[in-house]
Amino acid sequence: MTTETALFYVFSAILLFAAFRVITARSTVYAALYLVLAFFTAACVWMLLQAEFLAIVLVLVYVGAVMVLFLFVVMMLDANVSQLRDGFWKHFPLAAGIGVVIALEMAFVLLSGFRLAEAPQPDAAALELGNSKLLGIEMYTAYLYPLQIAAVLLLVAIIAAIALTMRKRKDNRQIDAATQIRAQKADRVRLVKMKPEMPPSPPPPPEPAGTGGKA
After folding, report:
1. What pTM was computed for the model?
2. What's the number of domains the chain is made of?
3. Where in the sequence is the domain holding 155, given as residue range(s)?
């Protein structure tokens, strides 16, 4: 067994363990941290497959941005996980069976891509271009239309997310931007000149009874 094969088995075992702990951890924060570990080990596996660009993108995009957002949302929501976990083990056999069926289907579809004997060997000129440049050439030539369709779908998803967050609610205070831009100084501040007024002096205290006559 070579060193590369041993590292592959080690990273694969860690990846499977982290993925299993993502769905079985009692704390949502721990589940998110296990997902970070799964992303890191998947990036290591891609490095072993000489897919350096995909490994760096996985670490930068998912671990550096998406998982930070997940942790922020989890800590801000402070969801009650005990209520969400009610009936977990009751439905676990059905969910595990569906997961096994999906894994077998994916393995059946993807096994044809792991036949290394039939894989085309790149020429020396292609190897000099590098992994990232080759991926870019392949995406923007052979897969240009699927890439544009995916970009349009992502744009629609962004617009839908903005529309959902900007919907009118009773407890939401919004400011009309057009009204705020048209506002002038005279509409906001009014200077009023007033003469100073002194408060009236209090009356003198009454004299006590029996002291007004002469002895």
Report:
1. 0.56
2. 1
3. 124-166
